[in-house]
Amino acid sequence: MLEKGKINAGEFEIIVIIFTLGSSILIGPSLLAAYAKQDAWIASFLSLFIGLFFIFLYNQLSSNYPKMTFVEITEKILGKWVGSAVSFLFLFYFLIISAGLLREIGDFLTTQIIVETPIQMIMIAFIIISMIGVKLGIEVISRTAIIFFPWMILMLILLFVFLIPEVEISNIQPIFGEGFQAIANATYRSLGLPYLELFIFLMITPFVTDKHGSKKAFYKGTIIGGVIMSILIIFTILVLGADFTTRHAYPSYILGKQISLGTVIERLEVIVAIIWFFSMYFKLTICYYGITLGIAQLFKLNSYKILVSPLAFLQVTSALILYPDTVYFKDFLVKTWTPYSLTICFFIPCCLLIATKVKKTKMNKESGR
């Protein structure tokens, strides 16, 4: 086996939570508010509910092949050539995600914090840090997440508590003011970010020691991450209003600037930035790890670690080529990402589950003769 590390269900749950938050912390509120306005929080909860159905599919596929990654599952079900083609589509999809994450990191820092720094240098610095985690393996990645996770939760709690005096209830009214169609449209747009992306965890489930516990952890991690995201969207609208949330690229970052408790505690946007950096790091590293391990399994390599450095350069290059500027990236995210994600992360696992059912039925008939 290329990966000898093991993690428990609790560690798996934590990395699912952090992955679910990921880039959604900064761009999720504006994405939903653009369609549902003050009802964005309703769309967020609806997308979480639908997202649990995707987790059900992934758990079903993992249960049939508990010791195999997705790349190995496709080859087992579809054969070498067809399975390799499907695995390539899967890995390319997550290469696009990792490139998009690097682009988001670069865009955010060059527009909000270190505006004169070349975006290429920011991407290279971040991917080097991610390389270290990938080389150390999933066991180290998950245990590092455990160290940072309590601090992330503490900072989120502090952020929500400090924002309470800034809340304006009128900002969230009228409820259902935009109609169900607007809410449904926002829900659809948010499925690709992040719930369908959780498909990457089929590259990690074989390394969870408690197979039954990993299913519950997958559900719990998704629910906790989704609820935190929904609460953040509620506060964003209550404090900033739906119009401002829609217009600004990073509304949750602006939330920290609204905090003012006398002259002692002011402008705590650094809290949002730190939470986002942690969640983005682990999301990028998990995608990076899944791609590297998947390619190694696809080409029957003895170790995935020899691919880590070449793939780092590929991801930085892809981030610059696939997403030439911020406007293009946002347009791609809004118009293309969800249908593309449904193709890879919904229709493919559905087809694999159907193929598994057909094969089992055929084998049962043959054995019953």
Q: Could you characterize what this model shows?
A:
This protein has 369 residues and is mainly α. It has one domain: Amino acid/polyamine transporter I, CATH 1.20.1740. The chain contains 15 helices and 2 strands. It has helices spanning 9-21, 24-36, 40-64, 70-78, 80-113, 119-136, 138-163, 179-190, 211-240, 242-247, 251-258, 269-298, 308-322, 326-335, 337-368; strands at 260-261, 265-266. It has a two-stranded antiparallel sheet with strand order 1-2. Helix 1 packs across helix 7 (138-163), helix 3 (40-64) packs antiparallel against helix 9 and helix 9 (211-240) packs across helix 11. The mean pLDDT is 90.
Structural class: mainly alpha
**What gross morphology would you assign?**
globular
- Number of self-contained structural domains: 1
Helix count from the secondary structure assignment: 15
Q: Within the largest sheet, what's the order of strands? A: 1-2
Radius of gyration: 21 Å
CATH hierarchy, class: Mainly Alpha
Topology order in helix (H) and strand (E) letters: HHHHHHHHHHHEEHHHH
Give the overall average pLDDT. Answer: 90
Strand percent estimate: under 5%
CATH superfamily: Amino acid/polyamine transporter I
Stated plainly, the CATH topology is called: Amino acid/polyamine transporter I
